[in-house]
Amino acid sequence: MQAARGTSLSDIENPSGTRRSPRRWTLFAVIAAVLYAIDQLSKWQAEKHLDGRADVSVVGDLLQLRLVYNPGAAFSLGTSYTVVLSCVAIAAAVAVVWFSRRLGSTVWAVALGFLMAGVCGNLTDRLLRDPGPLRGHVVDFLMLPNWPIFNVADICINVAAGLILVQAFRGVRLDGTRTSDEDTEA
């Protein structure tokens, strides 16, 4: 396929004019991989050092460590829907990879990297831990006052949600383009 004079082939394939940078996809992948590794390592350490122990105070009553196995979602909701939660997590991971192909914004790359790490971190527990595949319990160990016990993957998911909201409020699309005033009036 030949490009018109003054127009590159990448401009024809991406008529919005935004450039999908391999650097942004690489940033997404590196963030996802590093945070996933941190999540899994922290869970392994929690099981190794917290099993059978009383709560461990890290910062007084503000942050404590307590090992629990959560069959449900956030706040231990949906404990009898572990298989459904596992299937939703698989679909979410596939969707994140699909959307990551369109990255044209660094903030979106960071957000999707955090989201991928969080989803895959908890999904790994659901796939590989007792009582069995798709029914495994998630390792949680971080405890704040008056808040459910959570893990690094949960933090990643919440950071991703915050970044996605920021991008939505800023009107920045996944491909890096901005919503126009005409789009918001319609």
Radius of gyration: 20 Å
The domain count comes to: 1
Largest sheet: 3 strands, antiparallel
Question: Largest sheet, order of strands side by side?
Answer: 1-2-3
Compressed to H and E, one letter per element, the order equals HHEEHHEHH
Provide the structure class. mainly alpha
Keywords: Aspartyl protease, Cell membrane, Hydrolase, Membrane, Protease, Transmembrane, Transmembrane helix
Catalytic activity: Release of signal peptides from bacterial membrane prolipoproteins. Hydrolyzes -Xaa-Yaa-Zaa-|-(S,diacylglyceryl)Cys-, in which Xaa is hydrophobic (preferably Leu), and Yaa (Ala or Ser) and Zaa (Gly or Ala) have small, neutral side chains
GO molecular function, one term: aspartic-type endopeptidase activity
GO cellular component, one term: plasma membrane
